[in-house]
């Protein structure tokens, strides 16, 4: 059987695969960081911090605030005005 030999480049890649994680862990520990937490953060595996959500009941009891009701009414009136303008433009165009 022919004997296969590793090229210089393949030896270099294997060296990097072994040496770089060791060097990173050593540098992170030297800087006072947690290397495992850093890697988990980069990969998106870190656990999100629990958020405290407080529920406040709406003032009028049906799920909408007074400001949002006013905004809804304003949008409805604008919608109606635009519909009237559209029908007026269509009637002028057809005449």
Give the arrangement of secondary structure elements.
Blueprint: H1 8-30, H2 35-43, H3 66-94
Summarize the structure in words.
- The termini are far apart.
- It is elongated, with a radius of gyration of 33 Å.
- It has 95 residues and is mainly alpha-helical.
Succession of helices and strands: HHH
Rounded radius of gyration (Å): 33 Å
Number of helices: 3
Please give the number of β-strands: 0
Poorly predicted regions are: none
Amount of helix = 55-70%
Outline type: elongated
Described by strand count, sense and barrel closure, the largest sheet is: none
What amount of the residues lies in strands? Answer: under 5%
Keywords:
single chain; 95 residues; mainly alpha; 2 domains; 3 helices; membrane; transmembrane helix; transmembrane
Provide a short characterization of the protein structure.
By secondary structure, the chain is mainly α. The protein contains three helices and no strands.
């Amino acid at each position: 059987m022919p004997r296969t030999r590793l090229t210089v480049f393949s030896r270099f890649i294997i060296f990097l695969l072994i040496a770089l994680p060791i060097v990173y862990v050593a540098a992170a520990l030297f800087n006072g960081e947690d290397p495992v937490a850093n890697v988990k953060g980069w990969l998106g595996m870190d656990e999100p911090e629990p958020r405290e959500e407080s529920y406040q009941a709406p003032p009028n009891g049906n799920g909408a605030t007074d400001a949002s009701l006013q905004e809804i009414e304003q949008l409805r009136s604008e919608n109606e005005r635009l519909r009237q303008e559209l029908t007026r433009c269509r009637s002028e165009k057809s005449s």
